[in-house]
Design goal:
Layout (H helix, E strand, L loop, with lengths): L22 E5 L16 E6 L27 E13 L5 E6 L17 E8 L5 E5 L4 E11 L5 E5 L19 E4 L3 E8 L13 E8 L2 H4 L4 E7 L1
Parallel strand pairs: 3-5
Antiparallel strand pairs: 1-2, 3-4, 5-10, 6-9, 6-11, 7-8, 7-10, 11-12
Length: 233
């Protein structure tokens, strides 16, 4: 079992030795919207038919160790940003618009990290479902997750609950480089990134380079859950 959100990627090795003539199906049993929605979902995703003969002996092997990844420390960040995920509902209670930082796509830029600096983004999901958040330009690392405070009606507030434990990232999230992260309802997900410009970029002090961050669920990003950010040279 592996929990994957839209746009997330994982390298997986499957051993089909001794399985000649058999078929295997990748199934999806996650609800939509995740984690407790009632939408119709496709259950069968992909089939493998183990029928093709080898052209030669399989001499492949698993590496004894993976490439080491340097862990980024929050102490190296020059700025911590609180970012909210919200939804506006129709009269029938269905979400029709999603917002990042309570702003529309065409609103002025809010996030303007300086080139070459590190930032921690505290992504606070105030909605009732999970959102895969994708940040362009950078690869980031997941730091932790923590429950948000709630009001008297049980609605999440844009503030971490200091009494709630900080939950470690999943085993396939740290140490790892990510560009898309699952943000769960009623939870703050903390990520850290260094906003380096691409190698060879010609920049003068004060130049702005435009990128975007967004939810990677198609009908969400098409309905305002996408925002620009500027990297300042």
């Amino acid at each position: 079992d592996l929990l994957l959100a839209p746009a997330e990627r994982n390298d997986i090795i499957i051993d089909f030795s001794g399985m000649a003539g058999k078929n295997f199906v990748i199934n999806n049993d996650a609800k939509a919207p995740y984690p407790d929605g009632t939408d119709v979902i496709p259950s069968d995703i992909m089939m493998f038919k183990v029928t093709k003969p080898l052209s030669g002996p399989d001499t492949s092997s698993l590496p004894r160790r993976l490439t080491p990844i340097s862990i980024m420390s929050p102490s190296a960040a020059v700025k911590h940003r609180d970012l909210t995920l919200t939804e506006l509902d129709s009269d029938a209670g269905n979400p029709i618009i999603g917002l990042l930082d309570n702003a529309m796509w065409s609103d002025p830029v809010i996030e303007s990290p300086k080139a070459g600096t590190g930032e921690v983004w505290n992504i606070m999901n105030l909605t009732g479902d999970a959102h895969p958040i994708h940040v362009h330009l950078v690869q980031f690392q997941v730091l932790d997750r923590q429950a948000l405070l709630t009001d008297a009606a049980g609605n999440p507030l844009p503030q971490a609950d200091p009494s709630a434990p900080k939950l470690a990232p999943d085993a396939n999230e740290r140490p790892a480089w990510k560009d898309t992260v699952k943000t769960y309802p009623g939870t703050v997900t903390r990520i850290i990134a260094k906003f380096d410009l691409p190698a060879g970029t010609k920049a003068n002090p004060g130049d702005k380079f435009h990128y975007i961050w967004h939810c990677h669920i198609l009908d969400h990003e098409d309905n305002e859950m996408m925002r620009p950010f500027d990297v300042i040279a």
